[in-house]
Amino acid sequence: MLSLSPAVADEGMWTMDNLPTKQLEQRYGFKPSAEWIARVTQASARLAAGCSASFVSADGLVMTNHHCANACLDELSPKGQNWFQDGFSAGGQPHEPKCPAMELDRLDRITDVTDRMAQALDGKQGAAYTSAQKAAESAVQQECVAGDPTDWRCDVVTLYHGGRTALYRYKRYQDVRLVFAPDQNIAFFGGDPDNFNFPRYDLDLTFLRAYENGKPAKTQFFPFDVKGPSDGELVFTSGNPGSTSREEPVAQLELLRDVELPATYGYLSTEDGVLWQYGRQGAAQHQEAQNVLFGVENSLKVFTGWLQTLAQPETLEKKRQNETELKQWIDADPARQKQFGDPWAILAPAVAAERSLYARYSMIEGNRRPAGFAGQLYGYARALVRGAAERAKPDAQRLAAYRDANLPAVEAALGSPAPVHPALDETLLAFSLTRLRQTLTADDAFVQKVLGTESPDALAARVVGGTKLGDPAERLRLWKGGAAAIAASTDPMIVLARKVEPDAMALRTRWDNEVDAAEQRASEAIARARFARDGTGSYPDATFTQRLSFGVVKGWNENGRQIPAFTTFEGLYRRATGSDPFKLTRQWLDAKNRLNLNTPFDFASTNDIIGGNSGSPVIDKNAHAVGLIFDGNIHSLGGDFTYDGATNRAVAVDTAAIVEALKVVYRNQSLAGELERGHL
Amino acid sequence: MLSLSPAVADEGMWTMDNLPTKQLEQRYGFKPSAEWIARVTQASARLAAGCSASFVSADGLVMTNHHCANACLDELSPKGQNWFQDGFSAGGQPHEPKCPAMELDRLDRITDVTDRMAQALDGKQGAAYTSAQKAAESAVQQECVAGDPTDWRCDVVTLYHGGRTALYRYKRYQDVRLVFAPDQNIAFFGGDPDNFNFPRYDLDLTFLRAYENGKPAKTQFFPFDVKGPSDGELVFTSGNPGSTSREEPVAQLELLRDVELPATYGYLSTEDGVLWQYGRQGAAQHQEAQNVLFGVENSLKVFTGWLQTLAQPETLEKKRQNETELKQWIDADPARQKQFGDPWAILAPAVAAERSLYARYSMIEGNRRPAGFAGQLYGYARALVRGAAERAKPDAQRLAAYRDANLPAVEAALGSPAPVHPALDETLLAFSLTRLRQTLTADDAFVQKVLGTESPDALAARVVGGTKLGDPAERLRLWKGGAAAIAASTDPMIVLARKVEPDAMALRTRWDNEVDAAEQRASEAIARARFARDGTGSYPDATFTQRLSFGVVKGWNENGRQIPAFTTFEGLYRRATGSDPFKLTRQWLDAKNRLNLNTPFDFASTNDIIGGNSGSPVIDKNAHAVGLIFDGNIHSLGGDFTYDGATNRAVAVDTAAIVEALKVVYRNQSLAGELERGHL
């Protein structure tokens, strides 16, 4: 998707208030009714931590992926048990345990605030732009939450790179309980080797339940189709794709390709090696490292796909040509010149600033990899130190994460009983500090301030060994104590975060003003020009908000070899070698003779999805659930930048497999019954 | 260096039979005499394992880098001691211990064999080309060695990408003994963080001695200048740069940039993490992993520099333009068209074959990273299995490594008493097997043949646990037993290598014929056309043969900051934090008050060097040693593709620092005396 010209094939992640009804009718003879759209909106949900989900019974039963619930499974596992690895069944609704720190959001309302935001930002630049934006967003959110941030969540969402701004209001469920999860062997059968591959044989599934006032929430839902979809059938996914860069200006994509992506890829690759070897040190270490390792290996595959896509000259060439045409269109008319200016002239210095700040910013202040300060404990310390300072400011002047509307989420995260593994945390911190020194060099004054005469290993050992932040009560005490408690603390992790904070905030400010604000202004101007030229009729880049995609169940041609759309249980047993990650549990081995081996297991479809869509329901024309998205094929990885209908495939678990497995392998008739009935 | 047009600035790695005398005279008023050239040729040497060296006394005293002798230091360390880490002094010539498996070569004669080789290859293509080449090379080498492969080594060297072929005959020293090495803390002060950085404070030095018939060899040598060079002084390096790609066709550089480099970088990054974490498991593991880790981290910095250089559009743009001009020059004249044809038309299918074979070839047969079968023990098994099969063939049909002329080196390597660390070896093999499966996928028939139902970890544990190849005697027994011994062996590592061998050899054959032979033919045609158009007057890409570079001692301007050419001992003590890798030994700390702290320590110069130049002497106009190359600055890393005289710097130890350290820190008056006198 290179422009806002009409999308072809099954491309598109459409907002619920702008569905491609004409295309659907022309291509598939399907016209979604208002009721259909409302049902799909309300039966869909997202996990705030970064996944999609759906309601599949009237009593708040939620379906998502196993890999979306792994934190909860880990946190709830009693000592000596490992629910993440071995699976879990509550054994009836009254016994469902609450997931710590899990938040489920259901979209309630979309309001267009484009004009209001534009008015607030009119004519502003740099720091003035950033602070006006913060103030306006904060005001809009405050109104929307209406004094009840526990029940409502309101996000200001920039769509079409600023072509439009919308306020998304969500019903917030913070009491989410665990119903059922299969074992990790079947949830992630094939492990990293099979990740993003197809044919696939995964039951990547967890059932949760949303509660209100201590009781199962009453919800709209997708009735469960126990037969699953057919080859060639029109299907939809309703989920929350995290982000795409299909409309991103070429200058930013070049920076990504040449600087940011190689740095990220290098960091992740090394971390992959660190965690792999950490996990080989023993069974406990293997378990500790597992979740982080999964995330790292998953990202690595994604970034490998990005690198490959961006390395193809034609990827950026087409986008470059598109920008040239748009610029020519603007320049052809003085009125347009006046209206849109030269967005690329605004962009150039911003991209130059990003290029020169990137290494330092990512090491000291960035919140993703590469990072100079990694690990859960440092993350807590940073949130505490920063949160204390930010909360002392008026709401409108704070960083978004610390506005009043978001404080419940921050506090819930700080109070999470999720276990911290000190040895793993020390390893990750020592590794990141090593990278910090390597990236900024030992001559750097900030590096010298942080390390003093200590080595990265020694510093990490001292602060992880000495901190009490592994204890949620201590974290909440410091949180509640605010700035005074932080200033008085002698906890070495807090001391370290305090030392970093001035440099980090200074970089954040520069980044916000010199990079983000200008890039946003430029993107907005480009987007507005595109709107003026092409009109609406397309979809905005993904923003971790609800989107509908359409497509058909379909295999593809891989270098002359036809890959079928479906796999079956029979294929699973054929692929199982008995060695990790191709190993089945005894339960699955024993069930082989009882299972209908022809049951479809996983399937591929042309739906346009991306990271964040994990856990999305696949639904049919009747808004019945027929599948559960959990992955894409290897060709879907370029989807951040472009959609290729010939090979890009979404990968889902078939609902037929879910019901068959629940009944025959797990003998969980009550859950299977709830799915079939649609209520408890 | 983009073409054979005259090199500007101090660019160039010149062969000893084609020095840039005109440039030297014009720029520096220096005209090397025939005697000067002969002295420089004969006082220089190389370590067959991949470093440069020089003779610095008449009694065979050899100067090279600490990091070039680490294998010897490791291998010779008595149980409970660590000479690599703690340093070594023989305490007098009679006590110098022999380095196992170390070979030193001194260039004796260069013979042009261009015409002879061209005749042998005339009109041949694909498999016929490869086998004619093997046969002709073998014949030339056999004649040159003249039945004495122990004393002489003869390499057929392709220069100017086939524009010229030369026979390099070396005097071979296989009795090389250890004289002196400082501790690793000072040899590699600043470690990986400072590697390829400058200012720098390293005494990266080892002294060896070449022996003949059990006595110190009598050699030409570079008299030692105990004052070192001055700022701005004309200096030369005489060493063996390993390889550069300055004349490589663009299509091959694009493949490198887009496919091979990212794969290599990813593999090395992950291996870096694996080794880093392995080393954190304990002191013994730290020591075991150290050497491999050094190599990995060093390569990573190099490849990072490559990636950055190749990502700059202008790097390839200039080369592309140059090729276009050459093609136009050929096409402008029917006679030229007839003579040179269209080399790019030959190149295109070869590069396409390389692109499609690369992943499989690198995993199964390639001898560098990424690799599907890593570790010392697997390497031994492969050499034994392949060596047995190759030795059964006529010399002219064998792979180069197993021709009669090279068998002494293979046998010496197999017989090396260097310790094998089974846990480390198992780790590296398990890691590479994981990569093998990841790269070729679990669906691949070869992967299934190798792994069967075992996981990479289980397979690695079984074959490393069960093999006897850690014992040099067992390796030599199998070597001497030849094909029969290999066929009869039940050693699990041999069994594994035997299983891989047919696939590996099939890939090797395809690679040699479809990729290498065609790429070489195309490169040769391009090189011959360039010769015809531009004449001689430039230097060939590096080939790990002796080259002279000239330049001046000089700092550079780093983003507006002037970096001085010299560091001093005073700076070393200022930089020492007491934490690894900025930690000094007690010996160095104690010596501080006795040392002349103004002694120049390391220096930068504009000489054009590259990997393989490690250990090269820096000499002055009088052919006196004034320094010892051990590194380049960060800007030198793009030197594989282009030389930028503004920022590209070689980094060397000052001879003044060497003498001062020997006398004051190590109190090694006898060695200092030999350097000052020029003999024992």
Describe the structure.
With 680 residues, chain A is α+β, with helices and mostly antiparallel strands. Chain A has a domain at 14-103 and 174-244 and 546-631 and 652-677: Thrombin, subunit H (Beta Barrel). The first copy, chain A, is built from 24 helices and 20 strands. In chain A, strands 2, 3, 4, 5, 6, 7, 8, 9, 10 and 11 form a 10-stranded antiparallel sheet that branches. In chain A, strand 10 and strand 11 (215-216) form a beta hairpin. Chain A starts with 13 loop residues before the first strand and ends with a helix. Residues 1-7 of chain A have low confidence and may be disordered. Chains A, B: Catalyzes the removal of dipeptides from the N-terminus of oligopeptides. Chains A, B: This is Dipeptidyl-peptidase. Chains A, B: Pfam families: Peptidase_S46 (PF10459). Chains A, B: It comes from Rhizosaccharibacter radicis.
Structure at a glance:
Two copies of one chain form a homodimer. Chain A is α+β, with helices and mostly antiparallel strands and 680 residues long.
Characteristics of this structure?
eight-stranded antiparallel sheet, globular, Peptidase_S1_PA (chains A, B), serine protease (chains A, B), Dipeptidyl-peptidase (chains A, B), signal (chains A, B), 680 residues, alpha+beta, protease (chains A, B)
